[in-house]
Every structure is written in C-alpha cells, then in structure tokens.
Amino acid sequence: MNFTPRTPAPRPTALTGASLSLAFPLALALAFAAAPSSVQAHGNHALPPQASERARPDTPEIRVEGEIEVLVEDYAEHAETRYFLRANGRPVELHFRGRPPQLLTGTRATVRGRPFSADLEALYVESGDSVSTQSTVASSGTLPNTLGEQRTLVMLVNFQDDTSQPMSRASAHSLVFGTVGDYFRENSAGQTWLAGDTVGWYTIPVSSTSCNSGQIASEAEKRATQAGVKVSDYSRRVYMFPRNACGWAGLATVGGNPSQAWINGVFTVQNISHELGHNFGLRHAKALSCDDSTSLNCVVLTYGDPADSMGNRRAAHFGAFNKMLLGWLGTEHSPQVLAATRSERYYIDAYSAGDNAPKALRVPAGKDAGGRQQYYFVEYRRPAGYDGSLGSVGNLTSGVIVRRATEGDSDSSFFLDMTPKSSSMRTWDMEDGALVPGATFVDAANDLRLTLAWADGTTAAVDVAFGGSGPAPSCSAATPTLSLSGGAAEVLAGQGTSYTVSLKNNDSSACASATFDLTRALPSGWSGSFAASKLSVSPGATASTTLSVTTTENTASGTYTVSASATRSSGGNASASTSLKVTAPVSDTVARVGTITLSSSSRGKNVSTTAIASIVDQHGRPLTGASVTGCFSGATSGCSTATTDGVGQVSFGSGNYRGGGITFCVTAVSGSHVGSFDASNSCRSN
Q1: Starting at the edge strand that comes first in sequence, how are the strands of the sheet with 606-616 ordered?
Q2: Nearest 5°: CA angle at 110, between 107 and 112?
Q3: What kind of architecture, by CATH, is found in domain 148-279?
Q4: Mean pLDDT lowest among 269-278, 461-470, 569-578
Q5: CA quadruple 158, 164, 170, 175: dihedral positive or negative?
Q6: What stretch of H or E contains 178?
Q7: Phi, psi angles (nearest 5°) of residue 496
Q8: How far is residue 623 from each of residues 85, 313, 505, 618, 649, measured CA to CA in Å?
Q9: Dihedral angle sign, alpha carbons of residues 103, 105, 111, 117
Q10: CA 416 to chain CA mean position, Å
Q11: What is the mean pLDDT of residues 352-370?
Q12: Strands 448-455 and 590-603: what pairing?
C-alpha cells in the first residue's frame, strides 16, 4: 500500500528453528509469532486502555457464544489481524496468548476465556483449543463462496468535513468491475468474476478526522438504501473514500457473507485485489528473509512475497497454495498441480497461461510439530497477463519461484529467497529470489533437493530428488516417432483429406524440450499444408497437428503416397507415410452444345471469325468449368481448347483469313463432372 503510515511499523520478529539449506548459504527457520494488536475503533466500539494487558490469573473463565469477525488492517509496512466475537449484537475482542486459530468471518463459535472487565469488552483466550467452531471450509479443503459470479456493491462515500471525490463513479466502476474484475477472472482461469454496481458519491455524517470503519459502513449502506439500492442483494461490499485518519490503506473481513472491504484513498488494482483477497478468505503472502547458514535466523516479512497480490508490491497472480485454497487450481475443472511422489523430472508450464496444462509442482516437505503435512510449491512465472509486471522485477521470470506452506493452514504461505542477502533491504532482497537454471535448493532436514534443469519460456523442468538419490541424469537424445493417422482411405480426383500428424519426443527426461520443423512430400500437382509447421515437444511427450492434402482434378485413378518428415537442428529426424487411393470420377452427365454463334469482322482483305459456344447438360443446364475443344475448317482451319465460364460459355477465335466459307465444330467436352459428350448439333457454318 503506497502511502506513508501514520503509525510506525513494528520491527520484524526474528525466528529460530530447524534449518533448511541451499547449495549456496541459506538457513530457513519456520516458526510463528503472534504480534500484538493496536487499538483501533471498529463498529461503535473502541477497546479500553487495559485491553493490551492480560486478564488477572484469578479471573474465572467464561464461555461466550456468537459469530466470529476477523479483520485485517493493512498498513504500508505491516498488518494487524484482529478477532471479534459478536455476541448479543456487540463485539467482544479476542486476545490470544499464542497463534490464533484459522477463523473466518461469519463462523459460529463458542469461546472460552477470561474477561478483561465486567462489561465484557474483551476476552483473554489461552489457546486456539479454547475456540469451538463449525467449520466454514468445504470438505475438499477449499474456502467457501469463491467460485462463479460474485455480486459486489461498491459504495463511494466522503465525509462531512471532506466532500472531495478522488475518482468519478464511472472510473471507479471501470476500475473495480473492469480491471480488478479481469484480474480475478484471469487468476481463476475463468472460474470467478465480479458483477454488480457502483453507487455514490454519498456524503456521510462522519468526520475524516476519526477512524470508525463500522460507522462508515453503516452510513454508506443507509445512504445507498435511501437511494433505492437493495444492499442485501450483494454478497461483497466495498467502501471507497478519500484518505481519513485511519492509518491503514485497506481494511477487510477475512471471509464473510456478506464480506466487507474498506479502501482508504488508495484506489489501485493491487490494493483493491488485496482486500478482496482477504474477503475471499486469503491471508498474507509472506516471505522468509534468512541469514547465512551460520546464524540459522529468519525474519518473517508479512508483505514479503514479491509475486502475489497478497503481498503488497504488485497485482500479480495469487500463488499456487492460495489458488488451491480458493478452488482455482488442482481441481477437476481447473488447471492442474503436479504432485511429486518420487525422484524424477517434472514439467510445469507458464503459470499465467490460460490453459489446463500443469501450473505448479507440489513437493512434500515433512510435517510440522502438530503433525500437519508441509509442502514446497514451485511455479514458473512469465511476464504475461497480470504477471506482466514481474518481467522487470529481478529474476522472478527467469527461474522458478519456491514457496513453503502447511496443509490446512491458510496463513502459512512463505516465499523462499533462493539468492539471500543480495540486498540490504529485506523486501527488495526477495525480488531476485527465483531458483535459476542449474541451481539446486537443498532441504537437508527432509533429505530433499530441487534443481531447475532448464526453462525455455514456455515450460520449466524441475528435478526432484528424495533421499539422496544422486544427481539428475544426463540428457540422451533419441530419434523421435512420427505418425500419420486419420484421413480418408479413398477420394475422388480433385478432392482432399486431412491427416493427424503426431510426433513423440523420445529424448530422455533430462533433455530440454525440442522444436521440430515439419515438411511434406506429395505427388506432382497436389497441394498440402500443416496447421502448424513447427512442433515444440518435451521429452516423453507427444504433440500433434493437422496436414491437409488436396488432389488435382486430372489425377488418374491409382494409389499414391503421402509423406511427412520432422527435423531438428541437433539431428534425430523422423518420417512417416501413408497411402491414398484416388479414383477418377464417373459421371452420368451428358454434355452437349446448346448454341453456337459465329460473328465475323474484316480489316482490309483480312477476315476473322469468333465462335461462342454454350455447353449444357442433357437437361439444358449450363456446364461450368468444362474443358471444350473447338475446330475451324473451310477457309481457315485449326483447333484449340478452352474452359467454360460461369454461364457455360466458351469463346474461340479463327485468326485471319482471306474470306470464304468457314465452319466451326465442338469436337470434345470433358471434365471431372462430365460423363460423355453428345456431338449432335455441334457444328455451325457461315
């Protein structure tokens, strides 16, 4: 969020723990620390000063039942997550001793804790075990309400002491439902989109010098309702307003139906997509900034992921772990995630490409202290679509990105820096954090190695080695396999057919993908073309295209050979052929002469005659495209051949002669659609 914070950002927390190492120095410590919450007003409620202190140990525990509300305050350099339990219409803030459980707004819960005061404004909660909920996560492990149309209402409001309108309503609508909407549609591979309305500007009876998000929301919805808007029709509500006294650029509920997002003067794609990401249930895309292997220290950067909009740098695609939580990746109807189950080479395609090819690799990375499975997620980012901004950022599109996350923990996505300590600025240090071709990431604790073998702009090859299985195998090139299939077994002369050309790359898995040039060999006069004249194929994979072939009308009956070849600059070529039977067509059409018109002209002693013949079938219909032979005799003689035009006519010229009688006869008519010629009434004389 690009603005100067009104409150200073806290120093990051140094974490220590079990290390991971790289082939170059790096140690990763994966642990978690709970940061204290600052005091901000929400709704009509502000925490009392003693809320930052623990409740007295002798205060008895109580049980409170209500509905959870989780709010994320996004400041420029840090974020704060606050938990409330709405009980009997009032908010009770929850302070957890340790790391809070993964809760979503709208979850019904019973919380056991010690109150801070008699009026129950806050509860001190010993642990996540003190919260009993009904899960809002689907059995598939995905977050709820993340697919299909998202009915969204954008409310533009300003304040009684600041009636400025930083953006027109039309521009705001275009930003949210155009640019941001396109971001969600592309991210989800067309599975999720925004639809709705933008209303306002409304001036609400709230001062810009105060920070009360609940009052902003209630007054905005009140004004919209007065203007005839049925607010309850919208499951996602966004409040946009000029900068006010709140220090955050954005505030959002984590989940919720309806969900709510407050946009505080920072009207950008990144800020709005970030807050809507929280509304969908996502937490922050963090990063680990680690010292070298001698210190075993890492710092958690809340916004540290440079290639995920749930960081705060740019509106790039959500990472693979987040997309799986949303149901946008790794499901039956979405692009796939490869699961690394053994030591071998795996191929992933460019992450933002709009197809169903595998977009990420998931590699087991041991279990955490609670027995939950951890994974590495590997992605190949390219500067296309909403990942276009990554093209000018370090090496993020030159290699693969590696993150670590824990199954069932939505707040566990960590970007891992493959080239640590390259910058003294921790956030900037992440921007060259990709694993580049030839580099190896080593997880010694789990006896695992990840090596990027190559990346060619479309596909990346990642070698996974479990249990010290040794170096990746070397490349062994082999002759590819080419085949022609499909197509008609027999055609009439002048007709065509199409073949499927399939090419299998038989190189070993250690080789890079190869590009083959396709050529064809056809009988003389035939035409043919490939739908794609080049095929790029990964080792072990097969690619296909179409070869279309057309015979000539005068092809004699017989069996002919159609061939195709695949070649590459490094050698290892292949060819394939098939047979095509051609039959000269037999027609029952009888060609005859309809009329012959002779016209003569003279120039001095020279005379020339033009004969125009119309050729028809036995039913008197013009025959077009027929080959006609005509001959002059008498005062001059000679024969020639011409083709009938669109109305069945053909013209012949006699050349010059000295005068005298002349006769013109049509002597032959042929063509693929002509069976025979009736020569009666085929001559005229002048």
Answers
A1: 649-657, 606-616, 590-603, 676-678
A2: 135
A3: 3-Layer(aba) Sandwich (3.40)
A4: 461-470
A5: negative
A6: none
A7: -135, 180
A8: 88, 72, 51, 10, 8
A9: positive
A10: 23
A11: 90
A12: unpaired
The DSSP call for residue 161 is T
Inter-residue contact 155 to 224 (CB < 8 Å): yes
Place of tokens 């083709």: 643
Q: Where are the beta strands (DSSP E) in 207-359?
A: 236-241, 250-253, 259-264, 286-290, 297-301, 337-339, 344-349
> Which pair of tokens denotes residue 110?
């019973």
- The residue whose two tokens read 């159609």 is 562
User: pLDDT by residue (tens digit) across 413-469?
Assistant: 999 999 887 777 777 788 899 999 999 999 988 999 999 999 999 999 999 999 865
Residue ranges of the chain assigned to CATH 3.40.390.10: 148-279
CB 319 within 8 A of CB 308: yes
**Over 60: is that where the pLDDT of 581 sits?**
yes
Strands 90-96 and 297-301, how do they pair? unpaired
- Assign 677 to helix, strand or coil: strand
622: β partners: 616
Helix, strand, or coil here: 428? helix
Domain 590-685: which CATH number of 2.60.40, 2.40.10, 1.20.272, 2.60.120: 2.60.40
Amino acid letter, 183: Y
The pair of structure tokens assigned to 153 is: 């209402």
Which of 395, 324, 308 lies closest to 360, judged by CA?
324
Strand partners, 238: 154, 261
Residues of the chain with CATH 2.40.50.140: 34-133
CATH superfamily of 34-133: Nucleic acid-binding proteins (2.40.50.140)
Residue 75: how many other CB atoms lie within 10 Å = 24
Cα–Cα distance for residue pair 75/264, rounded to 1 Å: 10
Q: According to CATH, what is the number of the domain 481-583?
A: 2.60.40.10
- In degrees to the nearest 10, what's the CA dihedral of 643, 645, 647, 649? -50
276-306 pLDDT, tens digit per residue, is 999 999 999 999 888 653 345 788 899 999 9
In this structure, what are the phi and psi dihedrals at residue 388, rounded to the nearest 5 degrees?
A: -60, -35
